[in-house]
Specification:
Blueprint: E1 2-4, E2 13-16, H1 25-34, E3 39-43, E4 50-51, E5 57-70, E6 76-80, E7 85-88, E8 94-108, E9 118-119, H2 143-146
């Protein structure tokens, strides 16, 4: 697991490289749902900066590669490959910069969330409550070591 601090975001962005050895949409949906992040959608990543002011988000790449910019125009650009998981704390602006191949992503939000989608970059760091579980490792996952 890799933690990336972003300007203007309360907690670090978490990356779990190769979290699933044989990635399929069903494998990500089962993993996230089992860990109390019910799978919400299959698709890609919007090509404009957006964020969720009231929910954290997890992305699992099952096909293709995607380069996403996190944290606004001067933020971190990261390429995710099949099997990778990226966990975004609430308020993390993100947009797709490029994709290679047929892109497939599963997205999920913590149980009980009703995520909004806001365009742009938040004006201040947002801090909402911690989720009940790490979307990959469950109740004792490394998310809780980094999001305090």
């Amino acid at each position: 697991m890799i933690a990336h601090r972003l300007d203007g975001v309360a907690w670090p962005l978490l990356v779990y490289p190769a979290a699933i050895a044989r990635p399929t949409p069903q494998a990500f949906e089962e993993l996230f749902t089992r860990n109390r992040w019910p799978a919400a959608w299959r698709n890609g990543v919007f090509p404009f900066h957006h964020y969720h002011s009231n929910s954290h988000e997890v992305l699992g790449v099952y096909e293709g590669e995607v380069t996403v910019q996190f944290g606004g125009e001067n933020g971190l650009s990261l390429t995710a490959k099949p099997g990778d998981v990226v966990v975004l704390p609430a308020g993390t602006a993100h947009k797709k910069l490029a994709a290679r191949g047929a892109l497939g992503v599963v997205g999920a939000y913590p149980e009980g969330s009703d995520p909004d989608t806001c365009r742009g970059v938040p004006q201040a760091a947002l801090r909402i409550s911690l989720p009940a579980c790490d979307p990959v490792f469950g109740a004792a996952g490394p998310l809780f070591e980094h999001w305090k």
